[in-house]
Amino acid sequence: MRLQTHLIRINAFFFKIRLITKKRLFHIFEILFWPATALLSVGLLTRFLSLSEDMIAFVLIGVIALSVVQVAQLDISYVILYSVWNKSLKQEMAAPVGIPHLITGSSLMGIIHSALIFAALSIFSRYAFGFRLPRGDFLCPVLFYGGLVLTAVSVGVTVCALSFRFGGRSHVGATSIVSLLILLSGIYYPVDVLPRPLQVLSAWIPLTHFLEYFRSFYGFEAGSRSPLLYGYLLALLYLGLSLAALFRALNRAKQTGVLLKMSE
Amino acid sequence: MPPPAVDIRDIEKIYPGNPAVRALKGINLTVPAGSTFCILGPNGAGKTTLISLLCGLLIPDAGGGSVCGLDLLTQTGKIRSRVNLASGHANFPDNFTVEENLTYFGMLYGIPRARRQERTRELIAFFELEPYARTPFNKLSTGIKQRLALAKSLINDPELLFLDEPTVGLDPKACLLIRSRIRDWSRARGVTIILTTHQMDEAEQLSEQIAFMKEGRFVRRGKAEDLKKSIGFQERLTIRGRGLVAASGPVEALPGVSRIRMEEGLLECGLSDRQGLLGAILDAVLKSGGSVDHVEITQPTLGDVFLALANSSDPD
Lengths: 264, 316
Description:
Chain A is mostly helical. In chain A, 79% of the residues lie in helices and 0% in strands. In chain A, 50% of the residues are buried. Chain B has a six-stranded mixed beta sheet, with helices on both faces. Chain B has a four-stranded antiparallel beta sheet with strand order 2-1-4-5, covered by helices on one side. In chain B, strands 12-13-11-14 form a four-stranded antiparallel beta sheet. Chain B starts with 5 loop residues before the first strand and ends in a 5-residue tail after the last helix. Classes of the chains: A mainly alpha, B alpha/beta.
């Protein structure tokens, strides 16, 4: 099949998320309002606690990272969830599109939205709270951001897989996964304050390693010698597993008739 | 000679659950390319399951075959690019306008921008959707939503079009418009249509071949006229009057009378031979103390066939 045809199908899902963003006020809130209020409230808390400059950086890096993951995964999750809520999944899945089109198109929009959020929150943090990205090293924030997006894609694809199993209720999955990330991956505190069993779990979360990598530029010691490598390897592993789960969930939905039931 | 649009053998579909539902039981079907084929049957007969399976939304548990000359089990992606589907009460992304929905679906089918724009304009005009082009889907009336569903189903110029109750819930005027558009499109493009409906006139107007489905099987198929003949009576007698209930026994006992239906002031039955039976039936009514106000003899309709087959206890 011609490459152009695949690109148009990928663009269909990019177009879909663009329209959802444009028309659904709630989604704009999720992209802009929540990350902004989260950053502002945590930033003000650091002032109230009179934290040092490096501690402020530690906490704000966590908030920015969480916002990036949250925003990017939402765009991917919504590519299926929105159709489940509208009961239009049957019409869309009757078209000759596959999971690669669906995930690539929505991820592209997720990358754009989350890159804007990453840039906007970093700039705002600089002026409001004196937080600065590492000087003279352009690659470091890019690699950090890339890791966050890869993590977000795994989360988004997992939510899509859950959607084919649990329908519209699976958005709870997105919230739950992000809540677990807050608890386990060291968003607001170093993971060594966690009880030992939870530390073992946190080592299996790519976000933990990406945060350690980025914070190492602010004087915080990383738990491993190659946090970036560990982070990317884990993120790729979870991406592969989540895609396998999505293929399986779609296939199962076609075998059990759930795909039709979700459109009734 | 082109391959048949649909050629399937021994298709089985079981929905798992407690209890599991055997929705299709060894379906065999061949639909020649370019024809219009209608599937009738009561709710739960398996019509939507069959259509969903043919357009790749369900995976069969057994059997196989081809759609548009492509293997049903291994080439579903290619099949989906050559077929399309319009269902009754179809849903679309809620706050996308008519135009945006057609653009979106055009993209899903991989249609390049220039052709997609031309096609969208053409379909909006064909289904008289111009006044609603910028109206969000959730603000459209049922009839307009259905026109959008049909427009979407033609976006990729399909070789094979599945119409699953396309006029369900529409008023007669909207039904007429939709039927005329389906007929016009089918004639102009030579597209194969597989239609399910509960509207007998629609089935008769649009289809060359009709099949009745019941409990996951085809129980009869043929042309409308042949199907009417197949149910065992030539004409339907309707008598309106008073005291007809007492006559039901004697009338039912007459040889050549079938499928008797009795309501207050109404007696309906099938006749195998009008000449010999009409006098005997009227005689039986009068002898039972009834009176006759109105007598009507009509040809059997597809509705009669539907009722006869739907009510029969033996699916074969």
